[in-house]
Design goal:
By secondary structure, the protein is α/β, with parallel strands linked by helices. The protein is built from 6 helices and 7 strands. It binds 5-O-phosphono-beta-D-ribofuranosylamine.
């Protein structure tokens, strides 16, 4: 994806919860003037990340996805109106339709807390520990119509420690997520 000279790359971040990745992307966009987080979309009205977005004067929208196709239509309208070029999924817990993804083909990316293609889906840390893996990690990837299956952009390995718990592992992996998500963004626009 090439950026036109002088114009910022405008990004929408989709969240469902805490929004630590959102927070980190906002921080990054303040330092790196090429990117602007222009819109935050959540499927939950009480997602913590929305508070941070509001504090930073970023436009926020909530769509509960009870009627996905209706909500996706509204989302597409606002994404086009705001001229959003990249969508970053950051802990967004809803599945986007094939149709929606097709409309933003190659411009939707996601962060997942495992070394994909291993451990797609939920409860990754628990499953990794139950299988006595030596390593886990995180992956930024393009989103396609299959869950956690699009082309990998960047990964970071994290060593499993002796007395790891899902919570401890999640915390260490999240730290690495915050490093690789901004890097992956830079990679796809270069
Ligand atoms: C992260 O672990 C991310 O990899 C996964 O959901 C979590 C979101 O965390 N998809 P946060 O809301 O960004 O803190």
């Amino acid at each position: 994806m090439k950026k036109s000279a002088g114009r910022k790359i405008e990004i929408a971040v989709f969240i469902s919860g805490t929004g630590s990745n959102l927070k980190n992307l906002i921080k990054f966009s303040k330092k790196n003037k090429r990117f602007k987080i222009k819109l935050v979309i959540s499927n939950k009205k009480n997602a913590k990340g929305l508070i941070f977005a509001n504090r930073n004067n970023i436009n926020t929208k909530v769509y509960n996805f009870k009627k996905r196709s209706k909500d996706e239509k509204k989302m597409l309208n606002i994404l086009l109106k705001e001229k959003i070029q990249i969508i970053c999924l950051a802990g967004f817990m809803k599945i986007l339709s094939k149709n929606f993804i097709k409309k933003f083909n190659g411009k939707v990316i996601n962060i997942h807390p495992s070394l994909l293609p291993n451990y797609k889906g939920l409860n990754t840390h628990r499953r990794v520990l139950d299988n006595n893996e030596k390593y886990s990690g995180c992956t930024v990837h393009f989103v396609n119509s299959k869950l956690d299956s699009g082309k990998i952009i960047l990964q970071k390995k994290v060593k499993i420690l002796k007395n790891d718990t899902p919570k401890k592992l999640q915390k260490r992996i999240l730290k690495q997520e915050h490093k690789i998500y901004p890097k992956a963004l830079q990679m796809i626009v270069n």
